[in-house]
């Protein structure tokens, strides 16, 4: 529970003034709700004593109308503040997840993260609204009502509360089962989403191969298991609903009026006090049931989602770009940017050793060509330098800092990365280039396109910079996507350039253009190129076979 409070607190209480406003509004609403039964008591008291006058009745009615109006206004303001907190929390939590989690080539992990963003956050967000807007204040209201009940009739209060709290014993008995059923339902829901994504992403190929029926049957099987888990969940919730209705009948109708009537007959309560006690106790029992229902909802529907969010954030808290601890800011001009690897080893997610002990020093301004057989760790090395992966052991530094210690904005400015599968969003070529810096001028973009092999798009219009790229660059050829990534690197003007097979999809002419541009950076930038093509590595000062390190 301590982890949950710390986890939620980091994102919820972004502004003390806002949090205090919400608490204040809810506190006022609670106080008003406690006054209503007392007004009813005054009415009954004057009525039974025969002292009720039109003036007193008018004052009571005016008081009720005024309280209802104030309560409505408070509830409206409370909702405005609550929506603001929810929105800020939602944005903050998404940012934490996106800053700390990496969408690698691991499909399972990508599905998990997609589920975190699309389902887990929403589930926790909905529950958070209940917690912030209701639970805390309802606990406080319950304490106040219990105090008032004790003031009215302590013996009757003790017996009533003992009976009411038996429902929590039932919750304790089935809480573990609730958690297991809720987690099973969530895991099956994740399977359904994965199955849907598989079908949607590959439907054309599935149709051609006549495999769509098998995938749909598989999805239906998961749905059946999910429906079974859902039915089990609802059975438990139905049990508590029936038990709640039974409590309401026994306590509010039989217990209060039968035993309360006994106290009236013995002169320990009058009629007005009995009605006041009954009204407060009905509120009390409702609050007890609400709190219990929040706990049931948490166990069955929220705990599995919240656990995954916390586990993922904890597991990745040491990754680069975590955004939590203070980072070092580095200027790309004049900083010590030597790259040093000292006994660096790395094992992948399957615990397979990629390389054992790499020792390497790359002074700033040097150009390095890296080669080796497939799986030797060439791309892994680049990803460690840019902070995407952490070494299993050993030390890696840029200047005096590990990439994870450097502020993300600084790291993005000092390192540009050209990959085999570059990031391309659904938009235009220009939008994809402006993504790294929206302040680039048209002239800068056009010049970079000419230098980076996208000369035919170095103009405005639908056949130029406004050409649509499509999702993941589907309207571009493989070579055009690589060249677009290289143009980005030119525009960023980073002192360190990491290139992973930058010419793999290029023809000889475009390869020569890229190599000439890289050659022009000699002594001005650190260049690290991974390539199987000899012509691509002809300009480098040193060539390194990663398998021999």
TrEMBL record:
<feature type="transmembrane region" description="Helical">
    <location>
        <begin position="249"/>
        <end position="265"/>
    </location>
</feature>
<feature type="transmembrane region" description="Helical">
    <location>
        <begin position="156"/>
        <end position="174"/>
    </location>
</feature>
<keyword id="KW-0547">Nucleotide-binding</keyword>
<dbReference type="InterPro" id="IPR039421">
    <property type="entry name" value="Type_1_exporter"/>
</dbReference>
<dbReference type="InterPro" id="IPR003439">
    <property type="entry name" value="ABC_transporter-like_ATP-bd"/>
</dbReference>
<dbReference type="InterPro" id="IPR027417">
    <property type="entry name" value="P-loop_NTPase"/>
</dbReference>
<dbReference type="GO" id="GO:0016887">
    <property type="term" value="F:ATP hydrolysis activity"/>
</dbReference>
<dbReference type="GO" id="GO:0034040">
    <property type="term" value="F:ATPase-coupled lipid transmembrane transporter activity"/>
</dbReference>
<dbReference type="Pfam" id="PF00005">
    <property type="entry name" value="ABC_tran"/>
</dbReference>
<feature type="domain" description="ABC transporter">
    <location>
        <begin position="339"/>
        <end position="549"/>
    </location>
</feature>
<dbReference type="InterPro" id="IPR011527">
    <property type="entry name" value="ABC1_TM_dom"/>
</dbReference>
<keyword id="KW-1133">Transmembrane helix</keyword>
<keyword id="KW-0472">Membrane</keyword>
<keyword id="KW-0067">ATP-binding</keyword>
<dbReference type="GO" id="GO:0140359">
    <property type="term" value="F:ABC-type transporter activity"/>
</dbReference>
<feature type="transmembrane region" description="Helical">
    <location>
        <begin position="131"/>
        <end position="150"/>
    </location>
</feature>
<feature type="domain" description="ABC transmembrane type-1">
    <location>
        <begin position="22"/>
        <end position="300"/>
    </location>
</feature>
<keyword id="KW-0812">Transmembrane</keyword>
<dbReference type="InterPro" id="IPR036640">
    <property type="entry name" value="ABC1_TM_sf"/>
</dbReference>
<dbReference type="InterPro" id="IPR017871">
    <property type="entry name" value="ABC_transporter-like_CS"/>
</dbReference>
<protein>
    <recommendedName>
        <fullName>ABC transporter ATP-binding protein</fullName>
    </recommendedName>
</protein>
<dbReference type="GO" id="GO:0005886">
    <property type="term" value="C:plasma membrane"/>
</dbReference>
<dbReference type="InterPro" id="IPR003593">
    <property type="entry name" value="AAA+_ATPase"/>
</dbReference>
<feature type="transmembrane region" description="Helical">
    <location>
        <begin position="20"/>
        <end position="44"/>
    </location>
</feature>
<feature type="transmembrane region" description="Helical">
    <location>
        <begin position="56"/>
        <end position="78"/>
    </location>
</feature>
<dbReference type="GO" id="GO:0005524">
    <property type="term" value="F:ATP binding"/>
</dbReference>
<dbReference type="Pfam" id="PF00664">
    <property type="entry name" value="ABC_membrane"/>
</dbReference>
């Amino acid at each position: 529970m301590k982890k949950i409070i710390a986890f939620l607190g980091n994102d919820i209480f972004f502004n003390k003034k806002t949090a205090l406003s919400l608490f204040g509004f809810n506190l006022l609403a609670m106080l008003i709700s406690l006054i209503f039964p007392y007004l009813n008591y005054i009415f009954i008291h004057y009525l039974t004593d025969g002292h009720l006058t039109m003036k007193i009745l008018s004052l009571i009615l005016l008081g009720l109308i005024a309280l209802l109006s104030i309560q409505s206004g408070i509830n409206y303001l409370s909702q405005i503040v609550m929506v603001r907190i929810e929105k800020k929390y939602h944005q903050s939590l998404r940012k934490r997840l996106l800053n700390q989690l990496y969408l690698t080539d691991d499909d399972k992990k990508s599905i998990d993260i997609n589920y975190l963003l699309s389902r887990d956050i929403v589930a926790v967000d909905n529950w958070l609204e209940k917690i912030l807007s209701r639970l805390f204040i309802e606990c406080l209201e319950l304490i106040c009502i219990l105090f008032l009940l004790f003031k009215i009739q302590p013996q009757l209060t003790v017996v009533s509360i003992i009976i009411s709290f038996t429902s929590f014993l039932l919750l304790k008995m089935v809480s573990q089962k609730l958690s297991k059923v809720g987690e099973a339902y969530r895991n099956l829901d994740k399977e359904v989403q994965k199955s849907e994504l598989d079908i949607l992403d590959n439907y054309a190929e599935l149709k051609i191969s006549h495999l769509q029926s098998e995938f749909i049957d598989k999805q239906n099987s998961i749905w059946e298991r999910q429906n079974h888990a859902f039915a089990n969940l609802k059975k438990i919730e139905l049990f508590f609903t029936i038990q709640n209705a039974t409590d309401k009948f026994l306590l509010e109708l039989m217990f209060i009026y039968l035993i309360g009537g006994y106290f009236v007959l013995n002169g320990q309560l009058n009629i007005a006090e009995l009605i006041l006690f009954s009204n407060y106790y009905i509120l009390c029992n409702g609050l007890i049931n609400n709190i219990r229902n929040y706990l049931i909802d948490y166990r069955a529907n929220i705990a599995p989602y919240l656990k995954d969010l916390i586990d993922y954030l904890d597991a990745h808290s040491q990754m680069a770009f975590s955004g939590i601890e203070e980072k070092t800011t580095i200027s790309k001009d004049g900083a010590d940017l030597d790259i040093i690897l000292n006994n660096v080893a790395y094992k992948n997610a399957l615990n397979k050793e990629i390389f054992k002990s790499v020792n390497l020093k790359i002074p700033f301004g040097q150009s390095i060509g890296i080669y080796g057989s497939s799986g030797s760790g060439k791309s892994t090395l680049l990803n460690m330098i840019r902070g995407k992966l952490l070494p299993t052991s050993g030390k890696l530094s840029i200047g005096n800092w590990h990439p994870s210690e450097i502020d993300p904005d600084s790291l993005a400015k000092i390192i540009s990365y050209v990959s085999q599968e570059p990031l391309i969003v659904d938009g235009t070529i220009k939008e994809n280039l402006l993504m790294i810096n929206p302040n680039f001028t048209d002239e800068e973009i056009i010049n970079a396109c000419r230098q980076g092999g996208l000369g035919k798009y170095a103009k405005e219009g639908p056949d130029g910079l406004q050409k649509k790229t499509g999702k993941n660059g589907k309207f571009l050829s493989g070579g055009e996507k690589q060249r677009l990534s290289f143009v980005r690197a030119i525009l960023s003007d980073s002192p360190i350039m990491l290139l992973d097979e930058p010419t793999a999809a290029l023809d000889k002419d475009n390869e020569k253009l890229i190599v000439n541009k890289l050659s022009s950076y000699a002594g001005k930038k650190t260049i690290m190129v991974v390539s199987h093509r000899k012509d691509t590595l002809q300009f480098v000062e040193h060539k390194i076979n990663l398998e021999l390190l």
